[in-house]
Write a structure and sequence with these properties.
14 strands, Beta-Lactamase, Alpha-Beta Plaits, alpha+beta, 28% strand, eight-stranded mixed sheet
Length: 402
Amino acid sequence: MSLSLWLAESGLRNLPLEELVDGFARRLGAEGVPVARIFVGMNALHPMVLARALTWDRTTGPATRFEFQHAEIDRPIMQQSPFAAMLRAGTSERRLDLRQPPPDDEEPVFDELRGLGMTDWLGNIFPFGELAPGDGPRAEEGVGQLWLVCSVATDSVDGFDDAAFARLRELLPVFALAVKAVAMRAVGQGLLEAYLGTDPAARVLSGAVRRGEVHEVEAVLFYADLRDFTALADTLPGRELIALLDECFDCMVRPMARRGGEVLKFLGDGLLAIFRTDDRRRAATCAAALSAASDTLDLMDLLAARRREAGQTTPGLDIALHVGTVQYGNVGTAARLDFTVIGPAVNEAARIEALCKALGHPLLVSQAFAEAAADSRSHLVSLGRHRLRGVREEAELFTLAG
């Protein structure tokens, strides 16, 4: 099988990136192209991650992976990359003879490559759209501005000869296309996870995309809402308001993610999350949710204290925990779907949260939760029976003791 055909089939089969790079490099070597090192990088179109990269070495294989956050865009490792200059200039190819003395303004990576014994370097940028002068890593990205960067280095005494160089120029665009096929799936999955959550994203990618395709799951419901946020919103400029909201959500989500919770929906100034009982006991799931709620309130207290020192106001947070069976899946119209949970248990969780302010407790848990939380029952204290709006029977509610 020709190397071009192997690359095409690998891209079509979504061969993992490490295997794709390793297979390409070793097949090049078998053809007589003396590849010693390959670098592959791509911007990620992700809310947290700016770019991901992989380095292959002839001795260790694809052993090193990098991930760069958006906040790292001004770091020297990014700005002093040879690809940064190429992106700014709109240059798609650059070759450097590493046997020659380095100029004063040479990028630091080439000194490192010389130290590893490299003699020749070829770098390419393959834009997934039109590459214009001035294009480069920036906050505003879209599918039309994605790009793949790739460099190939050799430690051959004579560098890449004419035949090897011609073969690389012939094959690298096909290699880039195969990587794009693999990487775009990762881009899509990353975006789905950012907007839907890890489990819903996996279900959508596995084919659960039809309207009304739902199934029953038992879960602990975590329903949270910022108290008096609307009044505070009227006093803050837009950017300050969004920054505050992001900080509050960070306080809610970090403890939850550590304990297996899954955010299903951000509700303006609140959120709905679940802790599914699929792979652990109900009591353990309840304990995890209760710990996440307690840690969330602690983080909110720390945030409020820090902002208070700066003369800034912080909203309170109310949390309700409930357990029940819900319908989990696709709901919506033929053109626009939402992956969420619905059912009476969701409504009850919302009604319980609404009583937090009146009862003077930022955390309330239902009787069903208290009964299921055998491992944590000693940490809960009853607040008596209370009427929930829209629910016929009064419900006993609990909060954390102390």
